[in-house]
Design goal:
This protein has 13 helices and 13 strands. It is an alpha/beta fold and 374 residues long. It has 2 domains: 5-170 and 358-373, 3-Layer(aba) Sandwich (Rossmann fold), CATH 3.40.50.2000; 184-354, Rossmann fold, CATH 3.40.50. The protein has a 7-stranded parallel β-sheet, with helices on both faces. It has a 6-stranded parallel β-sheet with strand order 10-9-8-11-12-13, sandwiched between helices. Strand 6 (135-138), helix 5 (141-150) and strand 7 (164-166) form a beta-alpha-beta unit. Helix 3 (72-82) crosses helix 4, helix 7 packs across helix 12 (333-344) and helix 10 (295-302) packs parallel to helix 11 (313-322). The radius of gyration is 22 Å and the shape is elongated. The protein starts with a strand and ends with a helix.
Length: 374
Amino acid sequence: MRPLKVLQLLPALDGGGVERGTLEVARALVAAGHESVVLSRGGRLVDQLQREGSRHLALDLGRKSPATFLHYRALRRIFTENRFDIVHARSRLPAWVTWLAWRGMAADTRPRFVTTVHGMHSVSRYSAIMCAGERVIAVSDTVREFIRSHYPPTRWPHLTDDRISVIARGIDPAEFPRDHRPTDDWLARFQADFPHIGTRKVLTLPGRLTRLKGHHDFITLVAKLLGQGLDVAGLIVGGEDPKRPGYAQEIRARAHAEGLAERILFTGHRSDVRDIYAISDCVLSLSATPESFGRTVLEPLAMGRPVVGYAHGGVAEILAELFPHGAVAKGDLDAAATRVAEVLAARTPVVEFNARFLLARMQAQTLQLYGTLA
C-alpha cells in the first residue's frame, strides 16, 4: 500500500470508546508509515495522540448549534490544502459538516469519505448521515443489522450491502492479559480503600453512572444472592455523569435504604480497571438498551474472568463466542442470579479468546479498507 494521508474527525478527545478507537487507528497508521491527522476541539487525549506520532487540528465540529454547519467552508479549505486521501467521520455532527465540505469538491480532487457507525442512534434523517460514507464501517453485526433494518436500500439507494463493512472493535491481550494478578501493593491499597470487601466474592459492574447501565438491576441481583446465603460484595466501577448527578445520588440512596451500604461499593472513575477485573469473581453487563459492541464485557473475558450479561446487542455477540453460559435474557434477574451462583461455584470455565476481537485485527482491517478506497 502506498503511503496514505488520513484525517479522522470527531467532536473531542476527552475519553470514551469512539475516542479510544480513533487513537488506536491513528497509532496503526503511524506504525505502517502513513500520515495520521485527527481533527477535534481538543481534550486530554491530544497529548497522547501527538506523542504517538499523529497531528492534531483544532476545530469544534461538535457544538450543537446551526452555526457549526458553517464550518464546512473552513473544512473544505483544510481538505484542499492537505490533500487527504481519506476523511473518516466518527460522529454525527462532524459527519454532517464533513459531508457538506466534501460534496462541494470536484470528484477527481476530493478525498474518499468513510463513516463509522459506533452506536445505534435514534432513527432520523440527522442520524442517517452516518450511513452517507462511500464506505460505512459497522462496529458489530448488531450495528450492521440495525443499519439494514432502519436504512434499507429501498429508501437509501446508495446504501447497498457492499458498502457496509463489519469491523469489530478489539482489544490488545497484552493490555488485558489472561490470569493477570495485581501487585501486593495494589491489593493492600485497594483493601484499605474498600475494607468491606474482605474475603467476600466480588461482583463488578463497570460503566459510567447512567440509568442505561442497569445499576438498579445490579443492586437487586446482589440482594438476591445475599438472600441465597452467598457472601458477596458488589463493586460499581465508573464515574458520575456530570449532566445527571441526581442519578448517582439515587442509586447510592437505594443501596443505603436497603441496608446494602457495606455490600454495594462505589469506586468512582478508575484508571486501574484491569486490576479490578482481576480481583472480580464475576463481571456483570446489565444494560437496559443494547450495546453496539460491549468493550467492558470483552476486557474481563480476555483476562479469563467470567461475565454474566443480558444477551442483546453486541454483548450477545461476544458472549455467544466467548462465554455462552453467561448469557441471560434482558431483565431476567432470577436467571442472572442462578448463572452468577454457578460461576462463583467455579463450574463454568471461560473459553479461549477469539481472534475476531483482537485490536490488531481491527486496525489491519481498517487500514485495508482505506487502501482499497484510495
